[in-house]
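Hi, here's the filled form for the chain we discussed.

Project: internal
Contact: R.S.
Residues: 222
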Amino acid sequence: MVDSTEDNADHQTAESLRHQPVLFHGDYTGSMEMAADRDTVAHYLDDHQSWFLRCAYPMTATPLGNNGYDLSIGHFGALGYDVEPKVGLHLLPQDHGVYRIETIEIPGYVSLGYEVDFKAALELNETSIATGQVLTQVDWTLELKVWVGFPRFIQALPQRIIQKTGDHLLSQIVRQVSKRLTHKVQADFHETLNLSFPESYCKRNHHFFERFSRSQDHCEHS
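And the returned structure, exactly as it came back:
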């Protein structure tokens, strides 16, 4: 009877764990160059209401108050399971050249089986090159956590497959969105101010990479 009770308890614990949302977690960094001094770049970034919506396209963005946006990322899927991520982002005012972006609730929206925790920081670092041109490098970091509650047919798969596939998809989404958004923000900034583009823009060199994933015991770089 004792053995039977313990086996039943272990089974219930395993079932409980199996039905808990799966956490996917990645930490990312990147940078982009602007052909202007730091104050000029800061003035542009401060006025995000004038550029964020058009630079976010083809993602769908809707303003939430003065500094927030309801952002629909697009349609993604893996292992026969599809999701259209939506997240509320709060673009905090700069603090000594550092900008932070955090998750906020979207009024009236109930997520369909997932939860997102988005924490990003952008820092402006002014420099100059051999020609004497002043550049400002926008260095950013992102800590992203996504919890997903999968249907039963996904839960039946080995945990390591679910984890590996989800982490890979998360990195793909961040890489795709960040490179596209970076390129569009660079283009909008230089065209709006009638400035020559830096060499990195023409090469689409945005210095993006994944630092590590805390849900894994390994590092991946791209």
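Let me know if anything looks off before we file it.
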